[in-house]
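May I ask for an example protein's residues together with how it folds?

___
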Amino acid sequence: MEPEAGWGAVTAEARTHQESPAPEADRELSSLGGFLRTLSAVLFRPGEFFQNMGREGWAGPTAFALIVSSVGLLGALFWQLLVLAAADGNLGGIAEILPFQDLGPDLLLAIMAASPVLVLVNLGVGGTCWWGSVALVGADRDFTPAWRIFCYAQAGMALGLIPFFGLLLAGIWVLALMYCGVKQVYGISAGGSLGALVIYLALQVFLVLTLLLGLMGVVAGLGFLLLLG
């Protein structure tokens, strides 16, 4: 029995080393190889990935999310810019339902240049909201696991490279990966995982409305000052 148990332990260890998709699991891979393997694992084997995901470390997941989100956003903006160039600014038909349709080429180029900063801000705000949402449904209140789930779920942003409708698909896939991640990592029920998503989306809507109301207040205040002047 002992040799059999030993063989089973060796086999399990080898299988874990071979199949564990976390980038830090195989130090022999290059940075690009680890990134691509992680991206493939999260997109196509999310259940296995999150089940094997460690709970420590934030730098690697942050870098992963920053890269894939920036590339996905740039891809979506590029296709929009291509539509504007082809239509010479006169959008019609299917182009009217695309995102960023009201933005001119200059503004699109400015957003593309600032995409890493915008992505980093989105990660900070979104990751904090996700951590709060997970904590509210009764999961572990440790920030790092929630942050790792949120960052790796940004793998869905790779779908932003799909022409025209990629950004919409990317948003849906990111949410699906977040759901899968919280369910696998924390072991909470499907209802609890869905509840975390609902709370997260509600917080995002609240923040957007607060920002819009704040901007409207600033514009109204400036207009009032101009009238007084």
